[in-house]
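In response to reviewer comment 3 from the previous cycle, which asked for concrete evidence that the modeling workflow produces usable outputs, we include below a single protein chain processed end to end. The sequence was submitted unchanged, and the resulting structure tokens are shown without manual editing.
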Amino acid sequence: MARFAHVLLVDDNEIDNFINERIIVSSGFCANVVVKFSADAALEYLREVSSDPAQVPDVIFLDLNMPVKDGFGFLADFASLNDNVKSKSKVIVLSSSISPDDINRASVNPHVYKYLNKPLSEKYLEAV
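The workflow returned the following structure tokens.
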């Protein structure tokens, strides 16, 4: 039985998304994974499902380094989303950045639950 009903992966890297989705499903963390390749596509998806609490993701894995709108841009727009989304979805930054500035900036954001370094692993999922 999966621990969570819905997970949203937000990353512009297809290989990372493929691997992360496999780890999430095979570990039993979540059976239903939605993948979005940009911050804007993810925000649009969240707006679409915001009126149906059963479809709102429990966990959002967010990459920081993406073209057009990065993870911090996503977080800025996430703050204006419906309370159904903000109260249910735990945002976990999953990034290859080891920059102390990025880690601190993400960690002080009220919507960020946890900061993890890529690659995702079952050990990280257990900590969530």
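The first helix runs from residue 14 to 26. We consider this sufficient to address the reviewer's concern, and the full set will be provided in the supplementary archive.
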